[in-house]
Amino acid sequence: MWIYALVFAVIFCETGLIIMPFLPGDSLLFITGALAGSGHLNLWATGTVIATAAIVGDNLNYWIGRLYGTRLFNEHSRWLRREHLTRTEAFYAHHGGKMVMLARFVPLVRTFAPFVAGIGHMPWVVFTGFSVLGALLWTGTLVTLGYFLGNVPLLRNHLEVIILGVAVVMALPFLLRLMRRRQG
């Protein structure tokens, strides 16, 4: 039970507290999947704990951004100006769902996306739907990969490179579209 509680706490803090983006989300999912594959954890309990922590953490972060985030934007701030808030709201109105879902696969971004969605006043129901979908895909993908591949020595020894590669591949379509918009 302590392992499940610790995993819940780490994933909740990484996704729910804007000051905790450095916690090991992806690698923790893979490792817990590998532990389930070796019989030390229950696969379904692991997936349920992680997905629940991610969804609850996202919602906390969203509401912190929604209730307090706009106070950061003012005319005296060098980096957080009102026009940035307006652009953020417009961006989340058009691309918020994709951002929330795909951000789940990109370290650091997954911590900030719910906060910014709250600041951008993305409708909570829409946010929650994409947050749940992203959390289920993220958990399902990485825990399952860990379950089936976590005990293969080549993969276990190069885990960070593999996770970085997955993050780049997941973020690539979004980045390409963003670059095309800036060029045209």
TrEMBL record:
Q: Which domain of life is it from?
A: Bacteria
Q: Cross-referenced Pfam families, in alphabetical order? A: VTT_dom
Q: Is Nucleus among this UniProt entry's keywords? A: no
Q: How does it sit in the membrane?
A: Multi-pass membrane protein
UniProt entry keywords in alphabetical sequence: Cell membrane, Membrane, Transmembrane, Transmembrane helix
User: A GO CC term?
Assistant: plasma membrane
Residues passing through the membrane, by range = 5-23, 43-64, 124-149, 161-179
User: What main location does UniProt list?
Assistant: membrane
Localization in the cell: Cell membrane
Q: Which InterPro entries match?
A: DedA-like, VTT_dom
What family is this protein classified in? Belongs to the DedA family.
* PANTHER family in the record: INNER MEMBRANE PROTEIN DEDA-RELATED, TRANSMEMBRANE PROTEIN
Protein name, UniProt field: VTT domain-containing protein
